[in-house]
């Protein structure tokens, strides 16, 4: 990550200030919550992808900074809303907005962030940015609803899984690469290539998150958390489709009815490991990573391309 910082460190520093200004509010409570959000922000992978995608074929400009801010505003809004939907009290080791200020305020804060993103784009005539990101928000909503629907029925098919994560997770990263490329190139073909690149990275990123659920590292959420929330994950889907009918029925019963029992959840995790679900998911993750790199290698070599490659590899090699 140090190498990446050498390439876009200055831009990220400027972005931090611009983003803080973008979310500022004159309303006391709202401004207090915004400062809390800024303080607990994550690794900012999406802004990194925006800036590197812009630099791959052009120069970072004010449009690029607005694109990065729009991506981060929408991403933060969806996280705030997700915590309400999931009834989650923590986010990255901090209390969630709904844990401190309750659901009603959390929903309104998410709406505020969305509106700030819309105003940022429309006020500066960044209509292509808005078009790209609006499509991502639609996909994310559809992916979340599809996941809820299929989790209730436990209709665990691999094609459904990939549809969900392409919409729910990969769409925003895909859009981050697309708006970054558009901000500097204004080239539809380059933008489309970077959008496809970002989608493949996003799918690999989500599979890596799935794999964390079966590890023992401190990753900010308890091992087996996805099983407790009946979430579709690739290692679990593979296992349920591979084991015999009796074993499948027993595992589904645990996921449906005993998913809060740590002993039972461990039985599911052990079954996934034994069936080869972990290695299967890792192979799929690496396949998507390699497809993303193949697209990246179609661009001229140089420090920016190397930085993007390092960022791609980070998404699959990261420890948390």
3D architecture notes:
- The model is unreliable at 217-222 (pLDDT under 50).
- The radius of gyration is 20 Å and the shape is globular.
- The protein has one domain (2-317): Farnesyl Diphosphate Synthase, CATH 1.10.600.10.
- Strand 1 and strand 2 (94-95) form a beta hairpin.
- The longest helix has 28 residues, at 158-185.
- The protein has a two-stranded antiparallel ribbon.
- The chain is built from 14 helices and two strands.
- With 320 residues, it is mostly helical.
Draw up the topology in text:
Layout lengths: L1 H22 L4 H12 L5 H13 L4 H24 L4 E2 L2 E2 L1 H27 L3 H27 L4 H28 L2 H25 L12 H4 L5 H9 L2 H13 L4 H14 L1 H20 L6 H15 L3
Antiparallel strand pairs: 1-2
What's this entry about, in short?
The protein has 320 residues and is mostly helical. It is 79% helix and 1% strand.
Distance between the termini: 14 Å
Residue share in helices?
over 70%
The number of helical segments is 14
CATH topology: Farnesyl Diphosphate Synthase
* Beta-strand content bin: under 5%
Anisotropy-based shape:
globular
* Helix and strand composition category: mainly alpha
- The succession of helices and strands, N to C, reads HHHHEEHHHHHHHHHH
C-alpha-based Rg, rounded: 20 Å
Spatially, the strands of the biggest sheet line up as 1-2
Q: How many structural domains in the coordinates?
A: 1
Mean pLDDT: 90
CATH top level assignment: Mainly Alpha
Unreliable runs? 217-222
